[in-house]
């Protein structure tokens, strides 16, 4: 981070166009899906339940029922 609080970029690296990323949404969607997949995998591996919305109700899903 720089003194003004902004993130510094590696030399020679161009910053992504944030507005274009939000307009398109594809990269953001991909990142969110990857994050959810990793979180589900981690919960299952550690034996932790997750909470899901199923048939209009909040339901606790045990780790053995978390899809791979």
Q: Keywords, please?
A:
single chain; about 70 residues; alpha+beta; two-stranded antiparallel sheet; 2 helices; 2 strands; elongated
Account of the protein in words:
The structure is a single chain. This protein has 68 residues and is an alpha+beta fold. It has one domain. Helices cover 41% and strands 15% of the residues. It is built from two helices and two strands; from the N terminus they run ααββ. It has a two-stranded antiparallel sheet with strand order 1-2. Strand 1 and strand 2 form a beta hairpin.
Question: What is the gist of this entry?
Answer:
The protein is an alpha+beta fold and 68 residues long. It has helices at residues 18-24, 26-46; strands spanning 50-54, 57-61.
How is the secondary structure organized here?
Layout lengths: L17 H7 L1 H21 L3 E5 L2 E5 L7
Antiparallel strand pairs: 1-2
